[in-house]
Each structure stands twice: as C-alpha cells, then as structure tokens.
C-alpha cells in the first residue's frame, strides 16, 4: 500500500456498511487498511493470521475477505481453498508476488480477485466495490431460467441447481455463467466475459474461472458438453 487518500472523510459506522475482514501479518498494513477503509464506508475487522481469521469468521458475518497470501502457518491460498469448500463469501487476495502464474494460482484456489503489493489504496477500494457490486446487482437479461443436462440456472437469482440440490458458486463463477446464459448457443469472447465479471489483468484468468466452473457442472471437464470452448473466440453455453 503506497498511501491513503488524505481527503477521505470518516463515515459513520452503521450496520448498513459492508463488513470486511482484513487478514495480514503486517500490523502496519492492517492498521493502514483499517483506517482507510473505515474512512471510505466500510466496517472493518482485522486478523493477524489464518487462525485468528477463522475465529472472526466463526463469530461474525462478513461481506468480503481481504486476505494476504504470504503468512506464517496456514497461508492465504490454503485458507482460501478451505473456505471455498463451504462458503461463497467473496475473497480478494493480496500478495507481493505479482507474476501471472501467481495470480492464476490465486484464482484457482477460489479467490474472486488478486492484487499485487505494493498497491494504490484507491485501486484496492475500486476492486472491493466491484466485487460487492457484482454480488448485489441483478442482471438485466430477459432469460428467467436456462436448463442444461441435470442443471437449472436462474440468472436473476444467480442460483444453480442440480435437481433439488443447490450448487455452490463463487461470485466470479456466477458472473461467468450468467454472461453465457444471456447468450445461449452463442460464442462469447474472453474479453466480454472478463468485462462481465470484473476480472482485472490478463483474460487468461477467464480460462481459470472456466476450469473451476466446469469442474462443478461437467461429468468430464476435459471433454465439456455444456460449457464448450470456441477456438480463437471464447466460450459458449449449450443448453437443452
């Protein structure tokens, strides 16, 4: 983090504010983020490591988790994978490793976004708001329900079901499926999909999100039946 906005005004602490859990072993950065985010309309709770974060998560509801990757003990990637087995809470990873391979590893672990250190606080704020907006904004698509194989997807609710069982999706996966469901049978480019789900950086990250989504809906993700690749373009959803 390279500095805070000195003009930011302190916002009142109310239950209507998004509640974010910031997890980082750097106390100075935790304190900076707590102050800056509070000044910009967030309720902020902090934790110094994964164990403390788990205690906070067990006791309170959070709208977003901002999580450092490189921590002693259980690191951020391990905690993300563990949380993803039972939670759809949005996760934004922070790390000093900004190479594409590291970013992809973060997304593959289940994170919704990835920001390399050092970062501008305004960029962090924008990314957090984008993630929260994706979860809160109802789609404008006219499609009310789309079926493919044993699955039923309702774009407006962002709900995927296999029979009577709900399939857990992250916000990024929901956005990806929603964008494809708005154009069933039609190829959607990676660039359009990246814009639809607010992915920053290389559109290669769309492929990572697609791999994760296929694991949840395809009998054999290597030979997808419903979420097919259109070479040179992007992806297409093949409904029944």
From TrEMBL:
Gene Ontology BP, a term: regulation of DNA-templated transcription
Residues where 4-aspartylphosphate is found: 68
Boundaries of every OmpR/PhoB-type domain copy: 143-239
Source superkingdom: Bacteria
This protein's record includes keyword Transcription regulation: yes
Domain Response regulatory intervals: 19-132
One Pfam family in the UniProt entry: Trans_reg_C
Keyword Transcription regulation: yes
PROSITE patterns registered for this protein in UniProt: OMPR_PHOB, RESPONSE_REGULATORY
GO CC, any one term: protein-DNA complex
Keywords of the record: DNA-binding, Phosphoprotein, Transcription, Transcription regulation, Two-component regulatory system
SMART domains in the cross-refs: REC, Trans_reg_C
DNA-binding region residue numbers: 143-239
Protein name from the UniProt record: Two-component system phosphate regulon response regulator OmpR
Organism of this sequence: Stella humosa
């Amino acid at each position: 983090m390279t500095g805070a906005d000195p003009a930011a005004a302190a916002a009142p602490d109310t239950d209507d504010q998004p509640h974010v859990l910031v997890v980082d072993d750097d106390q100075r950065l935790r304190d900076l983020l707590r102050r800056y985010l509070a000044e910009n309309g967030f309720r902020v709770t902090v934790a110094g490591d994964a164990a403390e974060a788990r205690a906070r998560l067990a006791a309170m509801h959070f709208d977003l988790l901002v999580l450092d990757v490189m921590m002693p003990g259980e690191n951020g990637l391990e905690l993300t994978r563990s949380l993803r087995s039972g939670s759809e809470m949005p996760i934004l990873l922070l790390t000093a490793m900004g190479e594409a391979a590291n970013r992809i590893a973060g997304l593959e672990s289940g994170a919704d976004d990835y920001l390399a250190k050092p970062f501008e606080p305004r960029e962090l704020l924008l990314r957090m708001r984008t993630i929260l907006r994706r979860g809160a904004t109802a789609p404008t698509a006219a499609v009310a329900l789309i079926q493919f194989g044993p699955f039923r997807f309702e774009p407006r609710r962002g709900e995927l079901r296999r029979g009577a069982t709900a399939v857990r999706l992250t916000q990024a996966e929901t956005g990806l499926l929603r964008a494809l469901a708005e154009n069933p049978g039609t190829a959607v480019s990676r660039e359009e999909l990246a814009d639809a789900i607010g992915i920053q950086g290389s559109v290669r990250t769309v492929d990572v999100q697609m791999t994760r989504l296929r694991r949840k809906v395809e009998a054999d993700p290597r030979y997808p039946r419903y979420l097919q690749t259109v070479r040179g373009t992007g992806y297409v959803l093949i409904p029944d």
